[in-house]
Amino acid sequence: MTTGEKMSGFTKEIIIKTLFELLNEKALGKITVKDIVERCGVNRNTFYYHFRDISDVVEYALLREVDHVFESQVDVGSVLEGLEVLVNLMGENKKAMLHIYCSVQRDVFTNALDKMCDYIVRQYVEHNFDKGILEKEEMKILMHFYKCVMTGIILDWMDHRMSYDLTEYANKLRDLHGNSFEKALEKAAGEKPATLKLM
Length: 199
Prior knowledge:
Blueprint: H1 3-23, H2 33-40, H3 44-50, H4 54-71, E1 74-75, H5 79-91, H6 94-101, H7 106-128, H8 137-159, H9 166-177, H10 180-189, E2 197-198
Antiparallel strand pairs: 1-2
């Protein structure tokens, strides 16, 4: 990585960190680019070099956090455990997440959430099955279905202002539901998962 790339990455991190500081203070709709650049000490041109707008920062930050989770060695034996990863991630920034969700720009959150849930399901499949099976129609249907289930659960949690313990809910659901998703994947793939560890 060149010095320029390191500086670019550092600047992005400062902008993201500043936005989330502000989100812990007020709603997304009340935050301006001016607020961000004045607090973090970069100019507007620098902001727009890295991001299209504030919505772009939010989406980039949410997806980046999921990336960070899966860059480390994480044991995820089921898609429901993947849901727990996402719940823990969001819980760390509860006030900021609620400010995003309850703003007039809710679509920013829902679009990012859709991508995050799709990413988690896809990561589970890619790390546990041969990548070639991703093109099978049965796998696409199953992955889309469970992405929608995961998204719906999170949105209900947000509608209730994250007031109930979604990790406990996921644990109970896993006890009731068993590993039916994984069995369905195995049936669609025509093979057993190679491993149950995300590297």
